[in-house]
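Hi,

Apologies if this is the wrong queue. I'm a grad student, and the batch job for D-glutamate cyclase-like C-terminal domain-containing protein from Chlamydotis macqueenii produced an output file that my downstream script rejects. I'm not sure whether the problem is my script or the file. Here is the sequence I used:
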Amino acid sequence: PLAFTHSPGCMFITDLKNDNIMVRSSREVPQVHCISQDPLHYSIVSAEAAQKIKTLETLIGIDPGDRGIIHLLRQDELLKACLSISHARSVLITTGFPTHFAYEPPEENDGPPGALAIAAMLQALEKEVAIVTDQRAMNLNKKIIEEAVQLGILKRPVPLLSYQRESADSALMFLCENGNPGRPRFDHLIAIERAGMAADGNYYNARKINIKHLVDPIDELFLAGQTIPGVTTTGVGDGGNELGMGKVKDAVKKHIKNGDVIACDVEADFTIVAGVSNWGGYAIACALYILSTCEVHDRYLRKAVGFPQLSKKMVWLSALPSVTKEEKLLKTLVQHGVRSGKTASLEMEVDGLPFYNTHSLMIEKLL
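Support response: The file is valid. Your script probably expects a header line. Output copied below for reference.
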């Protein structure tokens, strides 16, 4: 008979069930999930941690704006996206939806808080993280990031990048060292409430207004990412016109108001749909914390070599979003004239929903 052994860093895993072993809790039961087809990549997590993350996905999947997003929901996308992010060394985040074209700045306040919540957790997990946004909005985002550091939301400033299409290989040059697909600068790209390109090449807000003149072609990075082995993408949205929502475009066209025109055509590997996109960002931060404190996942991540990283738990805990942090950040956005998406109001609200007790309550539930 064949005998298997393993050396440090090389684990043997079988799908043959051993019924003789006594498993004490779901914390010790491993689950295997496919997180990439090319190259083929699986990850492992405990049944307990997986269930907690599925609960987060259910919490954020409510539809307070009554848009019909229930038809866009895809099960376990949060879990698989976060497993992939957990394996990443370097992550690029993009946000910015200039829906208020008649105002300056035209940005809405859904997106940046979620993006910074993800960035804060990635910093705590000692991953490289950068944000790419519109050249037009660089100064605004620089100020928001600086104030997020002062408020204690970020440990240090997040590098801010812009992307312009200068040639056919601009996206590849941006994403990879010397444009070499074998040497990507980022393992994972995350778009959260980022204006997404429709089938006709334009960018639309929910009211079917073309805002292409305000949007840089960051979608090209996601399209290029699909061609680079080892680069994975995630899109977070709440209406179907956001970057990454191309994966559910048929449902958007069928069930979302103006969906036939506004639906984003660009796909992401994973699509996280939330009632408010910021909630998706908070859920990603919380899910990354759950994975980091999962002994089964931690062991797999370090290939059973070295010691558990749980000594850093307090650092991770302090990076989680909180009602206090998010209230301060929303006040900062209001001071910079960044408005609520649905109403263009400069009140303490996001997508027309009051911070207290809608967003504050969601943050408390996720924690």
